[in-house]
Amino acid sequence: MTHLGELLRDWLPTQRWYGAKGTAIDEVRVLVETRLPGHADVRVTVLEVLAADGGTERYQLLVGRRTGGLEQRLEHVLIGEVEGAIAYDAVHDHDAMASVLAMLASGGHVETLHFTNAGDIDTSWTSRVMGIDQSNTSVVFGDEVILKLFRRLQPGVNPDIEVTKALADGGSTHIPHPKAWYDGEIDGVTTTLGLLQVFMKGASDGWAMATASVRDLFAEGDLHADEVGGDFGAEAERLGATTAEVHALMAHSLPSRLAGAEEIQATARQLHERLDAALAVVPELAHYAEALHAVYDQVAARTAPVPVQRVHGDFHLGQVLRVQEGWVLLDFEGEPARPLAERTALMSPLRDVAGMLRSFDYAARHLLADWPDEPQMAYRATEWAQRNRESFCDGYARASGHDPRDESSLLRAFELDKAVYEVVYEARHRPSWLPIPLGSIERLIGGAE
What we know:
Radius of gyration: 23 Å
Order of helices and strands: HEEEEEHEEEEEEHEEEHHEHHEEEHHHHH
Largest sheet: 7 strands, antiparallel
Strand order of the largest sheet: 6-7-12-13-10-9-8
């Protein structure tokens, strides 16, 4: 008889959210398999994946089981036959997800799972899976609430729920408020499995808005970035102000303090270590290594204390939405591939600023992959990026009373650290985009001279 773990050895690497593609799987163990109440057979399933290289990761699935075959609309999420039933990824099944929603609406325990309700939920809402499926899976119910199903798990409370709840309790209007969540006991540790939040109906994605502005600029032959009808500068300034307001509330609602010289030096060592690791993967970085290390040495030499606090941790244009009332920030879990201790560590809010500045650069330049030898296009991209980077910092300074550009050495180091991360990502996944972060490194290093 075939067991679920055996089927998943082949099925997991085909999923976009699976994080260890290219590494052979030795074994998949089922750690938790809890069936939820309801007429559909849907089981919250936690897996431990043992890779051939010795690595271990944990993932969550909602596994549905049927004995009468699958409808055609579910055939694309078939896992295989297990114990005389057809197993499939149940996030795409309306009946199965109705069982999940019912538990979130009522709260309570099912074996080692705990469901917490914090708001009114209509259990008649039907589900649909969002088309963007990256490190997690998002399911919308009735265009009213959205469930983030955490796929890759790390023991402990996920920062997204911790930070989002603190901001909601502090009265923030710049985040989607939590409505319910669920967690489970895995090896004796409470681990966040899912978060249900208000769905931002009619919202515009920040990345889509920014890249539309870039296209408008590229379509004009003789206008500057601030003259084009789709100018993004005012929105970038509003986004900067919103970011500063959220940072201020995070500092008030969650731990914050001043970091001294010893901690600053530890941060500098981390920057050096990340660079060294990237150099082993991407030879093209070697040309910039000496200058990058010099920038990080400036951080190590700093004697003035640095304010540190909880931050977003993975801040870019794809993590913000524009609604009628203003900007909304999403996904406070940090970079999912980073250890949980690193994602919950207190950091300078300049890390988030640096992340958004990098995102403006990407929005301006990603289309240049199709026009690699167009200096005029490159000039216009630089103009757009610079205008919106400055506008974002203007808004941040206006709302916070502290201009991030006044900390140019620290901000540059964090932005270069992000660009180094991007170099590795592009080399592995989108080699044609590699010139974007490499070009940014060259420009930022030039600015340090």
